[in-house]
Amino acid sequence: MKKLLSLGGLSLLIICITASCFEEPNLGFAPKIDFDRVEFVEAGFLDSLIVFVKFEDGDGDLGLTGDETFPPYQAFDFVRDNDGDLISFGSRPGLPPYNPIDWIINPEINGEVVQDTLLIQTNENHYNYFVEFLVKQAGGNFTLFDPRDPPFYQTFNGRFPLLNRTGETRPLAGTLRYGMVSSQFTNLFGNKTIKLRIQIQDRALNRSNTIESNEFTLTAILRD
């Protein structure tokens, strides 16, 4: 299965999931993951950073469909003031500058389009795959690179689709192949040493353990 989400200069690609089931349900109900490997694929304009993560889950409730945008999986919530009113862009001092993370233009509310730019708060439970970039500094410590900060205002968090379509509770294990696509990887990271921090979430909002990849440079993991 392939799903491409356009994110301007940054974009996200979710590709290919394999899963297997066990006869004995002896796994925990919160998912567990282990790092496998990461590959870098150069493709001219949009390059891909592809992460392979092994997973197991006791009840198999992993994955979200594209049309699951109702609570608790909604993409965002509207921010309201103390009187319960929606907050418009430029309506008061101290509000964030316009960006696609904090604001939405002409949203639909209760079936009607509101001709305004309104303040929103991203709902993390809209996603089920979470990834952070850590960049190695001169002293050897790693610092977080967050693409949600200016000038990008983007995220590499995303969704993988349903792994268990039988409707039955059953343990699952397999490998998630998760690809992040961007025109900026080489510009951002070049020959820097980086690593990834990853976590997944099931449909019941149980988070997995957090894992980190091995340290790598893009050149070192370049696929032939």
Which structural traits does this protein have?
224 residues; mainly beta; 5-stranded antiparallel beta sheet; disordered N terminus
Reconstruct the topology from this structure.
Blueprint: E1 2-5, E2 10-21, E3 32-41, E4 47-57, E5 76-78, E6 103-105, E7 108-109, E8 112-113, E9 117-122, E10 129-136, E11 142-145, E12 172-182, H1 185-189, E13 194-200, E14 211-212
Antiparallel strand pairs: 1-2, 2-12, 3-4, 4-12, 5-9, 6-9, 7-8, 10-11, 10-13, 13-14
Explain the overall architecture:
It contains 1 helix and 14 strands, in the order ββββββββββββαββ. The longest helix has 5 residues, at 185-189. The strands form 4 sheets. The protein has a 5-stranded antiparallel beta sheet with strand order 1-2-12-4-3, with no helix packed on it. Strands 11-10-13-14 form a 4-stranded antiparallel beta sheet, with no helix packed on it. The chain has a 3-stranded antiparallel beta sheet with strand order 5-9-6, with no helix packed on it. By secondary structure, the chain is mainly β. It is 2% helix and 38% strand.
